[in-house]
Design goal:
This protein has about 400 residues and is mainly α. It has three domains: about 210 residues, Rossmann fold (3-Layer(aba) Sandwich); about 60 residues, no CATH class; about 90 residues, Tyrosyl-Transfer RNA Synthetase, CATH 1.10.240.10. Helices cover about 60% and strands about 5% of the residues. A three-stranded parallel beta sheet has the order 1-2-3. The chain has a two-stranded parallel sheet with strand order 4-5. Helix 1 links the parallel strand 1 and strand 2. The chain is elongated. Bound molecules: tryptophan (TRP) and iron/sulfur cluster (SF4). The site of tryptophan has 12 residues, from strand 1, helix 7 and strand 4.
Length: about 400
């Protein structure tokens, strides 16, 4: 049984628009998205404002990068029928929530985020002593909280940002979830569940609060999830009341750690655009063939008869991703014995990469031809995202005394 409130079944993730994606993205992030889109209500967006926090002085290519990335998502199989796809700046509600959260976020929390100093060091050629750059993890918090997402698939480097988001949500609920007459409102909400459920809720709450019984808490949350007849505001009260707090207006998300991609680059380092060792998803098959053929191997193998060691060869890491146990056994033996050439070893690999990319390239071509379709997908996604975002924002405004009704 799942005990998270229903909105927390929502998965949200964003990607900076870096332009055309490569096999590293595919084997890391994208395949994970493909799986999640069938299991949860997914929201995937292009973080174009995030790109501006570091690349504010290079906006010429931004739009092209955005569309290229969206086309690659679609070509890889991200399905707009299952997942909501949108562009961050098309949902300006993110910015309003960011502003409101900025009022109550201590400066120290942002200065202490590890990526703040790290990135400033790494991108030395840029002046990142900007307001936007300092605030960027909080913008990410707004991205997440505006959808009340329960799960946020991210890489290791982003976990600290989800952690910050949890702290921000907790502080927000603490400051603004304690409305006047909270207890009375919660008691009133309990009665709306019907006699039987109300009794059960009270018993479970007592069990949790008096005996710290976690399973009672879980059961009570599941019970709340199943209530069709109570309004969202009341549900938030009842979730909060269970734990002895106020209303949970912004639920705390969990990071869903994406395992690091095992996809090595052409030089054996991690595949990354900045190392110039990538194979792009839409790359020409002839170029892929050429890149793989000329990929470096164990330097000990000058002639075909020189014995080699797969452990010293970047091609071997590619075999781990693409070929079967049998093929791997065959080539590793042949390599050690000096009985196969490196090109023989690479052949099944080249075949596998080309086979994997063919349908992706084919689908990308369709989308390249029909830009209108891509734009529609994003417009529809942005509209759908806005509906959810507006609801959250209305509650946030009201909780902060800004509803003016
Ligand atoms: N900061 C993320 C990155 O650089 C992208 C991102 C922006 C994101 N907002 C998000 C990821 C919200 C997850 C959830 O990769
Ligand atoms: Fe690398 Fe294969 Fe050549 Fe051995 S045979 S060095 S594993 S490419």
């Amino acid at each position: 049984m799942n005990s998270l409130p229903h909105q927390q079944q929502r998965v949200l993730s964003g990607m900076r628009p870096t332009g055309a994606l490569h096999l590293g993205h595919y084997h890391g992030v994208l395949k994970n998205w493909l799986k999640l889109q069938h299991e949860y209500q997914c929201y995937f967006f292009v973080a174009d404002w995030h790109a501006l926090t570091t690349h504010y002085d290079e906006v010429q290519m931004l739009e092209e990068h955005v569309w290229d990335m969206v086309i690659d998502w679609l070509a890889a199989g991200v399905n707009p029928g299952s997942a909501t796809l949108f562009i961050q700046s098309q949902v300006p509600e993110h910015a309003e929530l960011h502003l409101l959260l900025s009022m109550m976020t201590p400066l120290g929390w942002l200065e202490r985020v590890p990526s703040y100093k790290d990135q400033q060091e790494k991108l030395k050629e840029k002046d990142l002593a900007t307001y936007g750059f300092l605030g960027y993890p909080l913008l990410q918090s707004a991205d997440i909280l505006i959808y009340r997402a329960g799960m946020v698939p991210v890489g290791e480097d982003q976990v600290a940002h989800v952690e910050l988001t949890r702290e921000v949500a907790r502080r927000f609920n603490h400051l603004y979830g304690r409305e006047p007459g909270f207890e009375a409102k919660a008691e009133e909400a309990i009665t709306k569940m019907g006699k039987k459920n109300a009794k059960l809720y009270n018993q479970l709450r007592k069990k949790y609060q008096e005996q710290g019984d976690e399973s009672a808490l879980e059961t009570a949350r599941a019970l709340l999830n199943d209530q069709q007849n109570i309004a969202l505001g009341d549900k938030e009260r009842l979730f909060g009341f269970l734990e002895g707090g106020g209303r949970v207006i912004l639920p705390e998300p969990e990071a869903l750690l994406t395992p690091a991609s095992k996809m090595p680059g052409l030089d054996g380092q991690k595949m990354s655009k900045s190392y110039k060792n990538t194979i792009a998803l839409r790359e020409d098959p002839k170029d892929i063939d050429q890149k793989l053929r000329t990929m470096p191997t164990d330097p000990a193998r000058v002639r075909k008869t020189d014995p080699g060691d797969p452990a010293k060869c970047p091609v071997w890491s590619l075999h781990q991703v693409y070929t079967s146990d049998e093929v791997r056994l065959e080539v590793s033996e042949g390599c050690r014995a000096g009985s196969i050439g490196c090109l023989d070893c690479k052949r099944p690999l080249i075949e596998a990469v080309l086979t994997e990319l063919e349908p992706i390239r084919e689908r990308a071509r369709e989308y390249e031809k029909d830009r209108g379709l891509v734009r529609n997908i994003i417009h529809e996604g942005s509209d759908k995202a806005r509906d959810v975002a507006r609801q959250t924002l209305e509650e946030v405004r009201a909780a902060m005394g800004l509803s003016y009704e």
